Amino acid sequence: MPRRPLPSILSNRVPLARGRDFARTAADGASDVFHPLFVIGRGLRRLVGAGRQRWSATPRDRRGPALCMIVMGLASLALVPYGPLLALISLMAAAAWAGRERRPADDGPSESEAGRLRALYEALVPYLSFEGDPSPLYVHEGDWTAAFSEYEFDDDGRLSRLLMKYPVYFTDAEAPSRARIEQVLLAKSGRGREYHFAWDQEANQLLLTVLPALPTDIAAQRFVTAPGETVLGFTDAGAVQRTVPVAGATAETDPRDVPPVVWRTGPRSTESHLLALGRPGSGTTTLLRSVALQALAHGDVLVIDGSGSGEYAFLLGRPGVLGVECGLSGTLATLEWAARETERRLIAANRARQAGLAVPDDIRQPLWIIIDRPATLTHLAAAEGREDPQRLLQVPLRHGRAASVTVAVAEQFEGAELLSDPVRAHTRARVVLGPTSPEDVRAVLGATPETTPADQVPPGRGYARLGSGPVLRLQVPATPDPFDDATSEYHRQAVLALLPERSAQLGSVPAAADPSADPDFGFEYRTGTAPETV
């Protein structure tokens, strides 16, 4: 006998899901409406329980007189005007007070928590105790409760927040002295986490807090920014005075607001150029891809891929992409055109201002020069006795702000020594990605972060500093190569959705180009929109 189909009410899951959501919403609303009744009911149960315990504790010979007094009191209350109403109101008030939610009393730290605090206190004694102090705050076998005024522990029993005092003669204005105390706290509080140290030099206090992990599920998307603003990544809440809405990791996840690290470029920017350094696999190429995708929305992009890995091939033929070069010859020609284009823009803008006219639109059109691994091309040019490609970046770096030309450079720490002086001097927006030491972060950013770098970090995780601003934690949005087989379908579609449709045929490599015969053979591409001089 053939099986009969299920009724539509059982086969259709959408109405069932909607019904569950409606029931859940109705239940939440009902709990809010009837919450006072729940509190009064809980209080009545507690009062009844307390009355039973009191009655059980009363001796038998006293129960009779007590019951008689209760009956007389109720009778006299009934004779008083509005007595029953007042009694009912008093009973409800007593029940509401008895049924309130009570916080458990703080009994202090447990034995294991007290042991951790004691060990931390003893570890700080050699650094915060001085001879000749008549009333030392830190002394061996001393009272740690006088030094640690506030403390919190997480579910695993590790310290998550600590407010400690230190002597007034401690040299908290010196960076090495603060670094020693931070290293001790890091070692005793547990590694594998990132800590924030807030030094209050006026009150002689140090607040240690454990920072939550930055979101790593934010993919490439069109961020809500103004022209001239680029989202480098995302940072901690409260570190910046701004949030942007971002889509979730999946289509079912609701959008949320996160604090971004916004890099502003243009004629009024003081950090017109960017330098990103990191270890292999730290996410510097991902950062440049994210910057290039955001730059395409308002300007033209020119990409130099010194590594020759072809990770920018998805940009070929797209409107606004002037070219993607990987070989030395193409790079030299492209950068020479970029230098001349910068000079042309400066001359045209100067003539327009002298004539009292507005700057032409083609001059105000932003031009982005994205350079990944320039040290590789410098080494190759030195081996072949050719011109250093970084020398051609002097004009865009020095005069790019007035000409609406922005340069973004990414390099690995191993090749940082080969970066030219103009690149080091004019890239005031700095990013460090990957696991790095505080010394390396200070050497690149010019300041030490107020947090401790973690040993294991996800790709795209690091620090950023814009000009002379504070050092911010940074998590770059996931922007992988859409042509990579290891890229998930969700991230591939997210990147492709930001690309404009191709409007020109890709140029083909000449058939006579033989890799064994031409040492400069590489991924040199031209798009139909590239200038003839490139």
TrEMBL record:
<protein>
    <submittedName>
        <fullName>Membrane protein</fullName>
    </submittedName>
</protein>
<keyword id="KW-0067">ATP-binding</keyword>
<feature type="compositionally biased region" description="Low complexity">
    <location>
        <begin position="510"/>
        <end position="520"/>
    </location>
</feature>
<feature type="binding site">
    <location>
        <begin position="278"/>
        <end position="285"/>
    </location>
    <ligand>
        <name>ATP</name>
    </ligand>
</feature>
<keyword id="KW-0812">Transmembrane</keyword>
<feature type="region of interest" description="Disordered">
    <location>
        <begin position="509"/>
        <end position="534"/>
    </location>
</feature>
<keyword id="KW-0472">Membrane</keyword>
<keyword id="KW-1133">Transmembrane helix</keyword>
<dbReference type="InterPro" id="IPR002543">
    <property type="entry name" value="FtsK_dom"/>
</dbReference>
<dbReference type="InterPro" id="IPR027417">
    <property type="entry name" value="P-loop_NTPase"/>
</dbReference>
<feature type="domain" description="FtsK">
    <location>
        <begin position="258"/>
        <end position="442"/>
    </location>
</feature>
<keyword id="KW-0547">Nucleotide-binding</keyword>
<feature type="transmembrane region" description="Helical">
    <location>
        <begin position="66"/>
        <end position="97"/>
    </location>
</feature>
